[in-house]
Amino acid sequence: MTLETPLSRVLGPKTATAMAESLELHTVRDLLRHYPRRYARRGEMTRLDDLQVGDRVTVLAQVRRVTTRKMRNRPGSLTEVTVGDGAGEMQLVFFNRKHGNLREGAWGLFAGTVGEYRRTKQFAHPDFHLITGDDDEDWARALIPIYPATKDVSSWVVQKSVRLLLDASGGFGFVEDPLPEDLRARHGLPSLPAALLDVHRPTSQDDVDRAAERLKWDEALTLQLVLAARRRAAALEPGTARPRRGGGLLDAVDAALPFELTEGQRAVGEELAAELSRDHPMHRLLQGEVGSGKTVVALRAMAQVVDAGGQAALLAPTEVLAAQHARSIAAMLGPLARAGELDGDPAGTRVVLLTGSLRAAARREARAAVADGSAGIVVGTHALLQEGVDFADLGLVVVDEQHRFGVEQRDALRAKGNRPPHVLVMTATPIPRTVAMTVYGDLETSVLRQLPSGRGGVASSVVPASDKPAWLDRAWERLREEVAAGRQAYVVCPRIGDDDTGTAETDAPDDADGAPEETPGGDRRPPLAVLDVAEALHEGPLAGLRLAVLHGRMTPEAKEATMRAFAAREVDVLVATTVVEVGVDVPNATVMVVMDADRFGVSQLHQLRGRVARGKHQGLCLLVTELPLTTATGARLTAVASTSDGFELARVDLETRREGDVLGAAQSGRRSNVKLLSLLEDEELIAAARTEAAALLATDRGLADHPGLAAEVAALATDERATYLEKA
């Protein structure tokens, strides 16, 4: 037996097929790396208060009562089984179904999806495994492993399969340890066979802790070796230096700025200028709070590239934002943005807007200016990625609000350079995958925390509409007070309306920051819609105010007209979808009410909140939800309301969604190559692993003297994942 042995040779074809289809476990390696989710002790049930409706869980409990009765409204019988342990009780319900040996006093594992009936949590038709004499060897242990499972492969099936591996191999002795012995000694780590034995069949919590530390090192070191190898390769990648030149666009931008750059903007600007002057491509993440002035920093970098003879492309997620960027850049540059026109400065360049809604003639003209190089700054949406958009000399790619774009979209633009261009990625709230890449050390990062002076700041509150309906009434009163004082407001909804069943489009196909899925069961009403809410507000709490709607199905001309009317104070309240999430800048808007806030992700809520208080007045953001604040989602909303620090919110997002697959296409989610390592808890371990990885690769022979470790790296860095990482 080896780690690559197919499970079908050990477990038989039926069990192996179920594991492959349900859990994506194919080899002995996969099964041994399928670690327990937690450990149960007899006399210790999963706390029922912590169970959320919709969770699929396995609990260890004792049967307390069994009652069977005939159903009144339909034929057949209903069996109710009460199981419990020190933390409480719950119901198991069986309709017309044989429920086996569920007798009072019996112990067992019960697995199912948590439901709720008359405010009582229950399992309907759960899978169960009663503990009998045949299980003594497994169940007499102090800790009983509970594995990630599905309805087709239960935790106890995984446990028995691991036991079969153990019996067949005589204690995992066939597993070779990939970590160098001196590294294990430096960090006090057990061997890999010992760690696997302790994690799957522990006798104490100390066993589990010691094994987890070792297995985290396996994940961290292997990942760091892959990332370090990619960094070394990127450092050798040929690029084109774009050094700063005086008397050009950059000096014009600095002279035209109507405000002083913050200290942070100046420092980051110098950092970018130095990297652009080097002859290998910059790949930098610019993290900054909403309103910290990331766009100005990016514009100065674009101007430097144009001064050096290259072109810069700014990729924006929506047409509204792309058009706004193009207008503001053109206004700031003045005649220098209109080279070739009658009133243009010959020493300048052209600023071109390229979006999907451009008419054919305008699109042809824009593409021609991009292709011949006369357009030095090109602003656009996904239209920039299309075939037929060719650059003369693409020197810098700026991706605005990167969480709205997938890696494939970013790479499609990057590939349009004759040589790999410099890349600047901007975000106000890093999504978990970006945080993961940052902490693991694959991205160079710059940070803007300082806000420009004169901003009013935003106070945020959660409005639990179901529990406290008077609070929602007060929210509309508060909005009217702001309008009466001469200011304006947004009301944001997750859906458009008119039988639209999905969320509002965002002009981005890969919005990676959707809110976590809520409770199943199909009993939640559809998300609130812009058209419905606008009508209800117009006839109800906001009667008499000037309301307008804005959403992604409107024509570009209609969207532009609505935004201009709002900016000109001809509209009091704008009822919109997330089309206003980024880039919309109306300093007089001071209130935002987000309806069904629980249906938005952390990053979206933070971005939406950034649309108010962009002037001198204090802002207010009200997050309206019908979910109880005691739920996990309610706690997430409370966390968003309690802080305006985007970096702290990134940690909240990370706790909610986890890191995702750092070397895979998923930007969030539960399935990951990183199974035990936590960015929130293991930053010191990750840093130590990065140091060890750099030392191993710095030797003349690299990993040649460590074939086991090289094999682990090769298994992780498949061609597909390595290519993905390079794009990322």
Automatic annotation (TrEMBL):
Pfam families: DEAD, Helicase_C, RecG_dom3_C, RecG_wedge. GO terms for molecular function: ATP binding; DNA binding; DNA helicase activity; hydrolase activity. CDD domains: RecG_wedge_OBF. Residues 499-516 have a biased composition (Acidic residues). InterPro entries: DEAD/DEAH_box_helicase_dom, Helicase_ATP-bd, Helicase_C-like, NA-bd_OB-fold, P-loop_NTPase, RecG/Mfd, RecG_dom3_C, RecG_wedge. Residues 496-526 are annotated as: Disordered. Keywords: ATP-binding, DNA damage, DNA repair, DNA-binding, Helicase, Hydrolase, Nucleotide-binding. SUPFAM superfamilies: Nucleic acid-binding proteins, P-loop containing nucleoside triphosphate hydrolases. GO terms for biological process: DNA repair. Residues 275-448 form the Helicase ATP-binding domain. Residues 471-660 form the Helicase C-terminal domain. This is Probable DNA 3'-5' helicase RecG. It comes from Geodermatophilus tzadiensis. The lineage of its organism: Bacteria, Bacillati, Actinomycetota, Actinomycetes, Geodermatophilales.
